[in-house]
Design brief:
heterodimer; A: about 325 residues; alpha/beta; Rossmann fold; 2 domains; 5-stranded mixed sheet; 12 helices; 14 strands; B: about 290 residues; about 10% strand
């Protein structure tokens, strides 16, 4: 198996999110959207026009937005609470914990423009802590899709499964990944490319970069496995144990280098499968720069991932 | 041995009979919840006692709920936004038949369903998990919006603390409820004027409270929160078709019903000793016999 990108065309996954939600809403009257004046940034204008009574705009009030979402779930709705992830997660953290996760409310939290999509706007608008924060909350499913197809599957899964979800969505352009046997399941990692020298475990906008890095490494005679770990909670521990068998794991995510996907993988490996690791991500509050510049500057690129793999293999041999 | 649930006899007769019934149940709740607190060695008696009459009127008269079908879609909803007052909530749920009275003896014990704050995932009749202040009210607003979208008949009642109104999320929710004209939503403010450490007005003043609610688009009335006739009349009135949400500011006293607890901030938390408990029971029994 050798995954790749389908073509050079790039996609904004919010389009797949909005289209899927609208399609499902036409079939299922329980689906409603809840926003904080974020119709445009969530690309829900068409949803609003088609289902005006089923779009609840609470204004700029994130705590209330998430609480209202939990109340709508109590009333039998399937609310998709959609807002910029920096505000949704940080401002409404206690509502996510108490009203959604602890109460087991059927709320689908959709963090839009996650990661560093708002590059130049600065650290207030970056959402790089969200995965670390939310994966610490019990009974909350956390999914970070990598492309339009996986975004659609994640939205469909969120509707089909009762319980609180966090869908972490990006607006950073990504290609469509080519899958030989497309099969999405919550909590199951997807091996996009086989390889036994090193495993690259990535999600979201880093998956296609990991695939490109594996191509580069292959030309050097290094067989890199690429594992798409879209679900961060619950974690696919078997896939991580298998990845650890290679003896070297590189994690890559558009988020903090600690506490998120890399942290989750490292926690498992430390307990069950000690292995050399490199964890790629951002160090903390970031300097001014575009999203693309920040990714480049902090090594979240094909080259950065490939270099981390080389360094890791060198230390393994050394 | 399993006790059968103490399903209350429904109120019959006129308004006075209904009020007598509520008064009798509230008196029972007060006696029972104080025993729970004494047995558990902790609790929030002050707020439990200030809210008992309000909660009794709802559970033993007003709410259209069925303990056999606790999740029936058409049920009325009650949310305890001041989630620490579980002594009052659990006695009411037990009295309304959601679980047997004997289970009240497990209050706060290891693995009990009767946690210090209510949990819907294991206790039937609880609508949402509360405890941190400022949470239940926005969730109740969401319930009312769901009903508004569906043009459903059910009503949503939410009991807030007064100190709780210092939380910003409460006013986010109040603003939205007013904006959307949630006519089937009733918020009851347990206006006992005391928060954990001191009076609300010396801590961060709420007054003019009725004006605040009106300014947010609510119908507002103020009543004596220990007057069962007044409570039932207000809840009945809340059922009439409305274009605006309805706020009842219920003037209450923390610790109401027990002379030495009444209007004392230090009984927010606290456990009566044996002599105090005996005195409290004697006072409540005397009141109940009236």
């Amino acid at each position: 198996m050798s995954g790749s990108v389908a073509s050079g065309k790039m996609y904004d996954c919010r389009d797949a999110f909005a289209l899927t939600l609208e399609t499902l809403a036409a079939e299922d009257a329980r689906i409603v959207a809840v926003v904080n004046d974020s119709v445009g940034s969530s690309k829900l204008g068409s949803f609003r026009d088609r289902f005006p009574d089923r779009l609840v705009n609470v204004g700029i009030a994130e705590q209330n937005m998430v609480g209202v979402g939990a109340g709508l779930a109590n009333g039998g709705k399937i609310p998709f609470v959609s807002a910029a992830s920096c505000f949704l997660t940080a401002r409404a953290m206690e509502q996510i914990k108490a009203d959604c996760a602890y109460s087991h409310a059927n709320v689908k939290l959709c963090g839009q423009s996650a990661g560093v999509a708002y590059g130049e706007l600065g650290a207030t608008h970056h959402s790089i802590e969200d995965v670390a924060w939310l994966r610490a909350i019990d009974k909350l499913t956390v999914i970070v899709p990598s492309d339009p197809w996986e975004t659609e599957q994640a939205v469909r899964a969120a509707v089909a499964h009762d319980g609180p979800f966090y869908l972490r969505l990006s607006r950073m352009p990504v290609p469509a990944l080519e899958r030989h046997a497309p099969d999405f399941a919550i909590g199951r990692a997807e091996t996009l490319r086989e390889g036994d020298d090193v495993a690259i475990v990535a999600n979201g906008t880093l998956v296609h970069r990991a695939l490109a890095a594996a191509e580069v490494l292959a030309a050097e005679g290094i067989a890199a496995r690429v594992v798409n770990m879209a679900t961060v909670a619950p974690l696919d521990e078997r896939a991580i144990a298998d990845a650890a068998q290679t003896g070297a794991i590189v994690t890559a995510e558009e988020g903090l280098a600690h506490g998120g996907l890399g942290g989750a993988v490292a926690e498992f490996c430390a307990r069950h499968a000690p292995v050399r690791m490199r964890m790629l991500g951002f160090p903390g509050f970031l300097p001014t720069g575009s999203a693309g510049w920040l990714m480049e500057h902090f090594g979240l690129t094909d080259r950065g991932i490939a270099q981390a793999a080389r360094d890791l293999l060198a230390s393994k041999r050394g | 041995m399993v006790e059968s649930p103490t399903i209350p006899s429904p109120p019959t007769g006129g308004f006075d009979a209904r009020a007598r019934h509520t008064r009798e149940r509230a008196n029972w709740m007060r006696r029972r919840l104080l025993r729970m607190i004494v047995d558990a060695g902790q609790g929030h008696p002050g707020g439990d006692l200030s809210a008992s009459d309000i909660i009794a009127a709802l559970y033993f008269d007003i709410l259209r709920i069925d303990p056999v079908r606790p999740n029936a879609p058409e049920r009325d909803r009650f949310v305890l936004s001041k989630g620490h007052c579980t002594g009052a909530l659990y006695t009411a749920l037990s009295g309304a038949g959601f679980f047997v009275e004997a289970e009240l003896a497990t209050y706060l014990q290891p693995l009990s369903r009767l946690n210090g704050h209510p949990n819907r995932t294991y206790l039937p009749g609880v609508e949402t998990n509360t405890g941190p202040l400022g949470h239940g009210f926005p969730v109740a607003v969401g319930m009312a919006i769901a009903g508004q979208i569906d043009e459903a008949d059910y009503r949503v009642f939410v009991l807030t603390g007064d100190g709780e109104l210092q939380e910003g999320s409460m006013w986010e929710a109040a603003m939205l409820a007013g904006h959307r004209g949630l006519g089937k939503l009733t918020a009851i403010v347990d206006r006992n004027r005391l928060q954990q450490g001191a009076g609300t007005e010396e801590t961060n003043a709420l007054e003019p409270l009725a004006d605040k609610w009106r300014a947010f688009g609510w119908d507002v009335e103020t009543l004596d929160g220990h007057d069962h006739l007044a409570l039932l009349a207000a809840f009945d009135a809340a059922a009439r078709p409305r274009k605006r949400p309805h706020c009842i500011i219920a003037d209450t006293f923390k610790g109401h019903g027990v002379s030495f607890m009444r209007n004392q901030a230090r009984w927010h938390h606290g456990v009566p000793d044996a002599a105090q408990f005996a005195q409290a029971l004697a006072e409540l029994e005397a009141e109940g016999a009236l």
